[in-house]
């Protein structure tokens, strides 16, 4: 990460963390399932 990037992200409400591509892919899969369920339950549709 470039110097100064982490503080900038933090100011915007993000948390910079390290990890592997595999752990990020696992995180994305988990988030897709979680948010997909919520979207279906709320019957959210694209406009």
Question: Helical region count?
Answer: 2
Q: Roughly how many Å is the radius of gyration?
A: 15 Å
Q: How helix-rich are the residues, as a percent range?
A: 55-70%
Judged by helices, strands and strand pairing, the structural class is mainly alpha
Low-confidence stretches: none
Features:
single chain, 47 residues, mainly alpha, flat
Question: What do you see in this structure?
Answer:
This protein is an all-alpha fold and 47 residues long. It has a domain of 29 residues. Helices cover 60% and strands 0% of the residues. The protein is flat, with a radius of gyration of 15 Å. The termini are far apart.
Task: Summarize the topology.
Layout: H1 5-11, H2 21-41
Structure described in brief:
This protein has helices at residues 5-11, 21-41.
